[in-house]
Every structure is written in C-alpha cells, then in structure tokens.
Design a protein that fits this description.
Elements: E1 2-7, H1 10-18, E2 27-30, E3 37-40, H2 42-46, H3 55-58, H4 61-64, E4 68-71, H5 74-88, E5 94-99, E6 102-106, H6 114-128, E7 133-138, H7 141-156, E8 168-170, H8 176-184, H9 196-204, H10 210-214, H11 218-224, H12 227-236, E9 254-264, H13 267-287, E10 290-301, E11 311-322, H14 325-339, E12 346-354, E13 357-358, H15 374-391
Parallel strand pairs: 2-4, 7-8
Antiparallel strand pairs: 1-6, 1-7, 2-3, 5-6, 9-12, 10-11, 10-12, 10-13
C-alpha cells in the first residue's frame, strides 16, 4: 500500500501562509524574470488562467478581476516543503520525496483505517505548517497518484467524484464496482506516465479513460507501445511494479542556466553570470559526491525579439575530473571567451557539468594526486560550502562573480517577490500585541 501526499497549489499556498489577505483571491506565481504563470490558485483557474501562460497575456486581469501576481520565492518554498515533508513522513515507515510538494509513503504494516490516518496527517500539516494538501492511497504508486488527483478534483469540483473521496481518497477501500466507476470517470491523460503523445495514440485506439487503459492486455501494450506503458497498465491493475526510491539517484549531468533580467552585451557582465552559474553547479556536484569531466557553457539571444540572433556553446574537457569551484569556473570562463562575440544582446546563458563520476572511483594517475594542493583545495571547498550554508548562498563567492551588492544587469527580474519569511532574519515576520 502506498500514499501520495501532495500540497494543493503549493507555491500559492506558501504565499498565503504569510499573507492571509490572499485567501479567496485569484493568485498566480510567476516564473523566472516574471515571465509566465507556474502556479495558480483555484480562483485564478476559474478566471481561465492556464498553466504556463505569459504574464503579459493575463496582466489585464489584475485590474479587471483583482488577479494578484507574485514573483517566485524558491527559498521560501523549499523551506516550507521541508516542514511539510517532515510531517508527511509520520504517515508510514518509509518516504520518497518525489518533488517539492509531493511525497510517496509506504503504508505496508500500518494498522487501522488508512483514510482516517490520512485525514489526521492532512489536518496536522494544515495546522502546523498552513499548507492544505490532499492524500491519495492505493495498492501501487500509480493508483496512489491517481487517487490523489481524484481527492483534489472532488474537493475543487464537487460533483465530479463522490464527496467522500475529497481531500483523502483510498481507492483500495472501494468496492470493485465503485472503483470501476471512478476509473471510468477519469480521463486517460490523468494517469501517471501518460503524456500527450501517448494519450493521442491511445485515443486513436478507442482508449479514453483510466478504466479503458486498465483493461488492456499488458503484453499487447508492451508490443505496441513500450515496457514503460506496460508497467503503468499493470500498476493500474493492482500489481506493484514501481518501488519507492528512498535515496535520490546520482545525476548524470548538472546544469545551472538563467534568463537575464535585461539584455547583456558586455563580456565582463557575462563573466559574472557564468561564474555564478558554474559556482552553483559545482556546489551541487559536491553535494552528490561527484566529479565533473567536462564543462559546457552556452550563450544565446532571445528568439522572441526582433534583433540579430546568436547562439553558441562549447565543451571544455578537464585534464582531470574535479569538483573544485575554481577549476570549473576557470574552464567555463575560457569557454565563454572562446564563443563570445560583441554586438549581440544576449538573453540567456548557462553552465552544464558533464561526464559526472563518483569521487571514489579515481584510478591510475589520478590516485597519485599530482597536485600537492588537492587536499587543501578540498578542505577549502568544504569551508566555502559551510559558510554559504550558514550565512547565505552568496556569503563567499569567486572574485569574478562580482559583489552581490552591486547592480548586476544580468540578474533576474523579481519585482513582485515576497520576503524570505523563514530563511532570513531581516525578513522574519513580527507579531505585535
């Protein structure tokens, strides 16, 4: 048995915790540079605001319908996610954090009414953290994911499913006829693992609902589509094929890319941005205990602007794999100087670390540690990471990144960002009598 605990409209809900005046109002959270909507409240959905719609297309709703738009505050969302997940973990013995607002819980061996347990965990998260969530329960992860969708839909759209399935939905507790009715009322695109391309192919074959998909022969599905869709069908039929991932898999490549808040034309400004991106990527590599063998850097103009277009990238192989910020930044800057051309208004840049390998598999000449300063550099990187973890991400930076207090033309536009209520002392809300 599995449960999926999922925060409702998570980014918007995080903002509402500290700004109760937003409750009941249409709210959207915008992507980097305040570009498009990446989260919507139910009230914003009711206005017809689609996911991913550019802000300039819905900006008129701010005046006509009171739509509130906020810049993404990922530091706040990450901290609120940690708090929510710590409470969700109390539902069962093992937990897989699937995304910033979702976690699977293994319910094997848990006694008592699982739906009642789900309601208690949901109420505790709402009371202690302030995030409303829904819980889906099923005999497989795919059914738990589907049950969570049903719980949310039954709460948001009364009448679409039985009211008893709102907030917490346990598909395993339904009678066979009731389960078939629920699956028949669910479109096939809502099944976890069914994308747009597969959905179109399924509908061409007369498969329109989750029940239609569950009734297919898994062997035929494998022959006609793929082993991945076969696994989805078996999971819908109640055969668990996807286990919990209790430890995140190592990433094969790590990237840090951003769109600029304003067009960048000078190499010095680009160097600051690339240094920042390479430093963040280096930190992520060290976090997972890996080394990078190549550094890829790219720059490009905006394809949406009427201007001269330019897009280039280059891969810089390293003499020996490294997770040293200095080494990776130096390689990225060499690559940047090789591909930079003056006269273009660049809109985006990024750094990708490739050929990642565990730091424990160095062999041959690498074991000789030809560079005598390697142990000292490793301790330096650890010290930098500790200082940035304790005092803030930009406390210690490479000199080529410039000073954080200086005005950087390449930084993202976040004109609507709320304070970092839970991660910055200066932004912490104060209650006064």
């Amino acid at each position: 048995m599995y449960a999926l605990v999922d925060g409702n409209n998570f980014y918007v809900s995080c903002e509402r915790v500290f700004r109760p005046s937003l409750v009941g109002r249409p709210v959207v959270v915008l992507s980097n540079n305040d570009g498009c909507a990446i989260a919507r409240s139910n009230e914003a959905r009711a206005l017809g605001v689609a996911m991913g719609v550019p802000w300039f297309e819905i900006e008129h709703l701010a005046e006509s319908s009171g739509l509130v738009a906020l810049s993404a505050n990922f530091a706040l969302y990450g901290d609120m996610s940690d708090r929510m997940m710590s409470l969700a973990a109390g539902m069962g013995p093992e937990q897989e954090i699937y995304s910033i607002d979702e976690s699977f819980i293994d319910l094997d061996g848990v006694r008592g009414c699982l739906a009642e347990r789900g309601h208690k965990v949901r109420d505790r998260i709402l009371q202690w953290v302030g995030i409303p969530c829904c819980v889906g329960i099923g005999t497989t992860k795919t059914l738990a994911k589907l049950a969570n969708y049903i719980a949310k839909t039954a709460e948001r759209k009364p009448g679409s499913y039985p009211a008893s399935l709102a907030q917490v939905c346990n598909l395993a507790a339904l009678t066979p006829s009731a389960l078939q009715a629920v699956l028949a009322a669910t479109e096939v695109r809502e099944v976890w693992g069914v994308g747009r391309r597969i959905e179109a192919q399924l509908k061409e074959g007369g498969i329109h609902t989750a029940l239609d998909l569950a009734r297919l022969d898994p062997a035929m599905v494998r022959r006609r589509w793929s082993v991945v869709l076969e696994r989805t069908v078996r999971e819908l039929q109640g055969l668990a094929c996807i286990a919990l991932e209790l430890a995140p898999a190592r990433k094969r490549e790590i990237a840090c890319t951003r769109s600029f808040g304003h067009p960048v034309t000078h190499l010095a400004d680009l160097g600051e941005a690339v240094t920042e991106f390479a430093s963040r990527a280096a930190h992520k590599v060290r976090q997972q205990g890996s080394l990078a063998g190549q550094v890829l850097v790219f720059i490009r103009t905006s394809p949406f602007r009427q201007q001269a277009q330019y897009s280039r990238s280059i891969s810089m192989p390293l003499r020996r794999p490294s997770a040293d910020t200095g080494v990776l930044v130096a390689a990225a800057l060499r690559g940047l100087r090789a591909i930079y051309r003056p006269g273009y208004e660049l809109a985006r840049a990024g750094v990708m670390l490739l050929e990642l390998q565990p730091s424990t598999v160095l062999q041959g000449e690498l074991e000789l540690q030809q560079e005598s300063a390697a142990p000292q550099r490793a301790r330096l990187m650890t010290a930098i990471d500790d200082l940035n973890q304790r005092y803030g991400r930009s406390t210690v930076v490479m000199a080529s990144a410039g000073l954080a207090g200086d005005r950087r033309v390449w930084t993202m536009k976040q004109e609507r960002r709320t304070p970092a209520y839970t991660t910055c002392w200066a932004d912490m809300p104060v209650a006064r009598a």
